[in-house]
């Protein structure tokens, strides 16, 4: 009887976790991304992406795939301590696709000291449900209200 109770409790726990993953909104994933970015947790950031994502920075060419995103993020995080705040304006989903768009404010301080960079602009995350129904980032785009002052 005790073993049956443990099995039932375990099954219920997995079912609730799966339901919670499906209930997570795309704005939750956007907020997770910002939290991981601020914590400089590259490993956690990369778990939020779908296979073969595209990242469109405010300047320069797009980065295609996890390897290129990892390389560029690692380079940035080695040099800067970011503090970003996202403000979602609109998010919608239809079937297995969704988006979250809004504005951001970010202060990026050089790790070795120096003048911090203040940036503001807009963002767009495009999501797709993958795996067990979790929202994953398939494309991410940033704009800047004005050119970065380096």
- β-sheet strand percentage: 35-45%
Count of separate DSSP helical elements: 4
Integer tally of domains: 1
Rounded to an integer, what's the Rg over CA atoms?
A: 18 Å
Supply the helix-strand structural class: alpha+beta
- Tell me the series of helices and strands, N- to C-terminal: HHHEEHEEEE
The share of residues in helices is 25-40%
Tell me the distance between the termini.
67 Å
Q: Main β-sheet: number of strands, strand sense, barrel status?
A: 6 strands, mixed
Count of individual beta strands = 6
Mean pLDDT: 87
CATH topology call: Nuclear Transport Factor 2, Chain: A
| Quaternary organization | single chain
Under the CATH scheme, the architecture is: Roll
Shape label: globular
Give a written overview of the molecule.
The chain has 150 residues and is of the alpha+beta class. It has one domain: Nuclear Transport Factor 2, Chain: A. The chain is built from 4 helices and 6 strands. The protein is globular and about 45 Å long. The N and C termini lie far apart (67 Å). About 11% of the residues have low confidence.
Task: Give me the secondary-structure topology.
Layout (H helix, E strand, L loop, with lengths): L1 H22 L2 H13 L3 H5 L2 E8 L6 E2 H15 E15 L2 E14 L6 E14 L3 E9 L8
Parallel strand pairs: 1-6
Antiparallel strand pairs: 1-2, 3-4, 4-5, 5-6
Features:
150 residues; alpha+beta; Nuclear Transport Factor 2, Chain: A; 4 helices
Q: TL;DR?
A:
The chain has 150 residues and is α+β, with helices and mostly antiparallel strands.
